[in-house]
Amino acid sequence: DVRDGEYTPDGSKEWTRLRYENKLNNMARVLNELGTDYNKKGLAAVGLCEVENRGVLEDLVQTGKLAKRKWSIVHGDSPDKRGIDNALLYNPKMFEVLSHDYHNAGVFRDGERVFTRDILLVQGILGKADTVFILVNHWPSRYGGQEKSDPLRKQAAATNRRLVDSLLQRQPDAEILVMGDLNDDPKDESVKVVLGTTPVMTEAGSMLYNPFELIHEGDEGSLKYRGEWNLFDQIILSKGALNAGKW
Questions:
Q1: Would the pTM count as exceeding 0.70?
Q2: Which are the contacts of 25, defined by CB distance < 8 A and separation ≥ 6?
């Protein structure tokens, strides 16, 4: 059973049509403006977490000025018990999707599978030449405490590492982006050790570059809990992506 009644008129959030439309308008405005300092066409692609269903994405891309960009959608239903999914929105004039697939995050507790969000892997052509692989993630939360839930995120990180290694084995200079809500900070073991990241891309080619590690050291983050900044939302790049120089 999927427990996805929270954002309904009868749910705990008392989600009305007016609140829903306000949310769509606010998100569409921000997404429409993102990246326009560098490219008037805006974003080529954006990974999303906490997606209720495909219908809300269809509403979003048709809202306000964002509708003029004619974005397309990659979405599939996740096994997550809350009914939330990972997805990718993209501008087909800037990013051509070649294939996409969902991968089991490989998370288990006491030998039983944890039905968390699948990893979305999208292969596409960015610009006119670059083949890019995008992995959209939403790792298990810290519900029950960071220490208790830590092994779950390490397993999700290990699955990402295997996917990345598989791509690099076939193409050592593959341009790979691992992104999403990792529910861990850049220096936590799941990211730093299991996924294998570095804040300075001077290591071996299999290491992944995480620019958000230095950002977090500067006392910045994407959420604040008990007075401390966390930076769970990250974009991590392969050496090939960092050296592409064509984006």
A1: yes
A2: 63, 64
Q: DSSP readout, 107-171?
A: -EETTEE---PPEEEEEEEETTTEEEEEEEEE----TT-HHHHHHHHHHHHHHHHHHHHHHHHH-
- Indicate left, alpha or beta for 97 from its phi (over 0: left) and psi (-120 to 50: alpha): beta
Q: What are the C-alpha distances in Å from 16 to residues 4, 10, 12, 13, 69?
A: 15, 9, 11, 9, 27
What's the one-letter identity of residue 82?
Answer: R
Closest CA to 164 of 79, 241, 49, 89: 241
Contact residues for 196 (Cβ-Cβ < 8 A; gap 6+): 161, 206, 207, 208
Residue 186 and residue 197 in contact, taking contact as beta carbons nearer than 8 Å: yes
pLDDT by residue (tens digit) across 164-206? 999 999 999 999 999 999 999 999 999 999 999 999 876 566 8
* Among 174, 220, 165, CA closest to 196: 165
